[in-house]
Write a structure and sequence with these properties.
- With 188 residues, the protein is mostly helical.
- The protein has one domain (33-181): Protein of unknown function DUF269 (Putative cytoplasmic protein, Orthogonal Bundle).
- Helix content is 56%, strand content 11%.
- The relative contact order is 0.12.
Length: 188
Amino acid sequence: MEPLANDRLAFQAGTFQEEASVQPRRRKAVKELDQDTADAFVRRLCNLLDTADFFGRHASLSPQEKITKLFLASAEDKDKSEFNCAVSPKVRQQVPVLFQAIAGVMEEKSGTMVQSTAEINEEGFGRGLLYTGRVILVLKSLRAGAPFPFTSEEKTIRYGVECIEEGLAFLEKYNEMSAFHGLLSLEG
């Protein structure tokens, strides 16, 4: 063989050995949830579900059963949402209720009035917005309905707690900055 061909084979053999020694990607470490926040979120979500249960048909259910029966989407609803990016009615119901529950917990924890606005159209595009006064605390864009529909309680709670922590962290940072610099220096 020619020297160039031998070098090419040696190079290729070396790359195969290097590829074999590469470690597989690790998933991001799953952050431990604050149990108090998770409990407050479940309580607030169940309160909102009870509000929509006009005749009290589901009043005797445990919080987990209420969330499963009244809030979570079934596999059939998830399939409807994935077909042509159209969202099911269950998903259109989940979005505002979830953001209202998040806003309620943020109010409890911060002592300031937090409002929520959530909308999603038939194609799955929309947004969830949590704000206090003129300050936007959390803004989540929904594209093709993602991360909705929630089909497991664990994912719902994780998403809610992460939004709560994000909003409270931003509110705390905003309060520190506005206390030091004043409100007028933060405006665009």
